[in-house]
Amino acid sequence: MTSDLAGQARRFAKELQDALNGTITQHVRIAAVLRPRSAVGPVFTLGHGLSATNPTQPIAFPLRIDNKKPRSWMNLSFQVRLDDEGEFLTVHSSYCGIFADESLETCLLHWDYEREKEHYTSAHVQVYGFSPALEALNKNSAQKRSLDKLHIPVGGKRFRPCIEDAIEFLITERLADGRDGWEERVEEGRQRYRRSQLLAMMRRNPDVVKEYLKSLEDAGT
Question: Which of 42, 109, 145, 180 has the fewest Cβ atoms surrounding its Cβ within 10 A?
Fold first, then answer.
């Protein structure tokens, strides 16, 4: 099982690497390394700068397509394992943070996914900054929170953003430069991701698939 997981994890790491280097980065290497210990069985960590001596802590990389000084940095990490049936790769958790500095002291936002999270939505984005509206709401609340402590839902387990969504955001909002043809690379990866999520939904909801197929039969009679 671990060998099958390793193969799928490395293929996914290559997809992430190609998506980044084909659009907003250069020379980024996304490795897949087996974690030393995990409570949910074998888990691989995917990220930049991982190795046998550093299996769990990916390092940030600049968002640039040339040798100019980067305007932003990304810190990316995926924890992947096989599903409960031991057949398909599944993301156990993921993190994608955008920073203004290599030391990761100034964060713009980060997208997070934590499977089966109890206290807030599993897929969410947290944004750093100041919100007058939140400050006004805090005045009437016993629990005062800053903007970055709000977990804003982004599609749930199946429809959460993919790396291509983050890439498109960075380019269109002029936070990173994009290579020529980045739109095609983004759309290709996004369609691949959505197809895999749709297949997973179908496997978990065969009754919905049967209902849909029956509707097609009924429409054809």
Answer: 180
Q: Rg (Cα) of the chain, in Å, rounded?
A: 20
Residue 149 CA, chain-centre distance (Å), reads: 19
> Which residues does 188 contact at the CB level (< 8 Å), separation at least 6?
none
With vertex at residue 9, the alpha carbon angle to CA 4 and CA 14, rounded to the nearest 5 degrees, is 130
Q: What's the CA gap between 93 and 116, in Å, rounded?
A: 10
Write the CA distances from 22 to 68, 78, 157, 189, 219, integer angstroms: 17, 19, 27, 11, 44
Residue whose token pair is 């659009």: 23
pTM: 0.91
Phi, psi of 96 (to 5 degrees): -140, 105
What amino acid occupies position 63? L
What is the distance between the alpha carbons of residues 143 and 131, in angstroms, rounded to a whole number?
Answer: 16
Structure token pair of residue 182:
């980045």
Cα four-point dihedral sign 160, 166, 169, 175 = positive
CA distances from residue 191 to 105, 195, 196 in whole angstroms, order as listed = 34, 6, 9
Residues with pLDDT less than 50, the chain: none
Q: How is residue 4 written in tokens?
A: 């099958």
